[in-house]
């Protein structure tokens, strides 16, 4: 964003925000608790630029820890124009995930791009209704039906984009793969011009989600809004077509997400979700199922390139599975249960490089926590790295050790310490879907290819999700026997 525009916006907003923040900084009449320590900084800007700079320089964990060292596990600051309380530690995570007085909170830019009736915006009964509808599609009984389709998408992608190439850039390829998988399972959208057009719009949509929400022609936010409008029209059209197919008996509840959501009715037989809610839910699911899984698989590729022991153990696990199947036979639900070591590797990657650095909640009433008051309307910010990299919770946290997750969860860690998927009533409903997608992809990658990193510098930045240097270019070699 142009700096002069930022200054102009600051000048316009300064008097109003100063008044609001001054009022918000005072505890409400009658409360005996006090505000957390810390400073709200400059109006509008607060500590936002400092955090964003730290994320892009891959020093955000140190930035957060510096605040903890200075103020303790509870402190106040201002992020993205709103007074905020930073909460850290397992007890704080549990409070954030389970408190009924905290609602989901996203930047206004995200809300405008994804819609007003999405899972991340709703509260109370509406939130439970939408979440229940998505959970219906994402439960194991439904997902086991889709393993073969995911298998086919992965194999076609590797044949088209990896096989025969001397070098590839991993992150953009993983993003396209996860987009293809989820657009097939969500919308029944097969390969072709319509899927390619939606993929192009989706890229512009993502670019503006965390931008300053200024709707001017030259801004990323403006481009993102236009892309969002086009994507929403496509999804609305698919919704109407799917509804007609269901009425003609040409589709069933298990065809895809849209069909599943359209098939849900209440006690009187009326649809549970409106078309707007289906479109908004599809937008959120498309993003949630796209970025996080592609980042996880990219960082798995990055890690095993320099960890031959881990790679060898993964190859052995997947070779044994392949030997038990017929030539060319697709993976099945039962095969995924045998990929225990690979999933432990994935969980350890998620501990060390969580795709979601942190997230926001909003106080719906005055709340007391640990002797401090969080005023109604303030944001609450939690981060994964504080507990993930705490030596008191995970021994030698900087060491890669998949055995921490031998039983699928860290045995010695207190509850709400490993929070890569969040926790509580709002734990990621797509966790099992991400597991299937990751395991199927890694099965074919480690059996079909060898690779080595082409960047000498092994680092990454967050913007806001982690991205390896240059998208992780690798030198690729096919294994001729596979």
From TrEMBL:
Heme binds at residue 428. PROSITE patterns: CYTOCHROME_P450. InterPro entries: Cyt_P450, Cyt_P450_CS, Cyt_P450_E_grp-I, Cyt_P450_sf. Pfam families: p450. Residues 1-24 form the signal peptide. Keywords: Heme, Iron, Metal-binding, Monooxygenase, Oxidoreductase, Signal. The keyword Metal-binding applies. It comes from the Eukaryota. One of its GO terms (molecular function) is iron ion binding. Its cofactor is heme. Belongs to the cytochrome P450 family. This is Cytochrome P450. It comes from Setaria italica (Foxtail millet). The gene is LOC101762243.
